[in-house]
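Onboarding guide, step 5: your first structure request.
Type a short instruction followed by the sequence, for example:

Predict the 3D structure of this protein.
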Amino acid sequence: MGIVYIHVPKCGGSSFGAALRLRFAASQATIPLDLGPAVVAGDRDRSIEADHALRVDELSRLLDRGTACIAGHVRYDAAVHAGPGRDHAWVTLLRDPVERFVSHYLYLQRRHPEPDRPATLEAFLETPDALRLSSQYLFYFAGTTQHRTDDAAAAIRRACSALAAFDLVGDLARPRPFLRDLARLAGVPALPWLPRNRAPRQTTVPPALRPRIEALCAADLEIHAAALGLGRAA
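The system replies with structure tokens like these:
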């Protein structure tokens, strides 16, 4: 059995993906982040959506070629799962959405600074990008974000239904059980712990900002809670 690893940003996927690729060294691939021009002039949301559509197409092509292990920042697609990915185990790792949001912002500031991104987390909370970053589970598993849907409740249900179709959904707060169950799916006694892309310090959520961040992350918090209630959660 092969494995498709959906890597939501800042959920530890770089470390676990590296371990998987080592296990499937003869037949493995990642989804590139630069597959070609997908920019829709003047519309960042549509540009992001177009870029991820290219990534889904690449995932489908890799599965058609028989690639055993595929990992990457790619949205879940039910048609790909039911089609060329039907013989693969589908895996993802989640994280407390509030911590994930803060970690994502700090990572962008550290590795991908932009002059128009606010220099403080508090100011960033008022931007459209905060709406995108705070609903990454909604985006990766339901194909939308909170400011791009007219029916958030339906989108949340769609994301929960998608995660229920996965063979393994882990929680970054419990990495050892996830690594154990990932090894089982990979057909080996154990997988190595390979720390990758670590933040220079532990993510800390400012207490004064937590209520505002929780409000932003409400959809992802609901999806996260439902996912950890699945029988397939590690």
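Each response can be followed by summary notes, for example: The radius of gyration is 17 Å.
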